[in-house]
Write a structure and sequence with these properties.
single chain; alpha+beta; four-stranded antiparallel beta sheet; 4 strands; about 20% helix; about 35% strand
Length: about 110
């Protein structure tokens, strides 16, 4: 049986422009360090974009934002990282399964 994650987190809030820029830089660095990234030869330049989507808690009915960093080259999505607030910083985690409404997230 797994124990619940009790890591202290930031309150649900929007990211500042400085935090967004730092997350995009870190996500691009992580993507370029991945050995699989050298196999892709995108026609367009590789870019990163922060995106947010609202999630409603089923128990309390409260809405809070989920933040993602989408790595894309033109219309091709190469990777998606979930932003997880932990203590005094934000942690990035690469997702194996992307959110269904990812096209809308990339366009924002």
């Amino acid at each position: 049986m797994t124990t619940p994650d009790t890591t202290p987190r930031h309150e649900a809030r929007a990211l500042t422009s400085q935090e967004r820029a730092d997350l995009e830089r870190r996500a691009l660095a992580a993507w370029f360090k991945d050995p699989d990234s050298t196999q892709h030869k995108p026609a367009a330049p590789v870019q990163a974009r922060c995106a947010s989507k609202a999630k409603t808690d089923k128990e309390t009915g409260e809405t809070h934002p989920l933040h993602f960093v989408v790595i894309h080259a033109g219309a091709d999505i190469l990777a998606v990282y979930r932003v997880r607030p932990v203590k005094d910083y934000f942690m990035l985690r690469r997702l194996a399964r992307w959110p269904r409404d990812l096209v809308r997230l990339k366009a924002q």
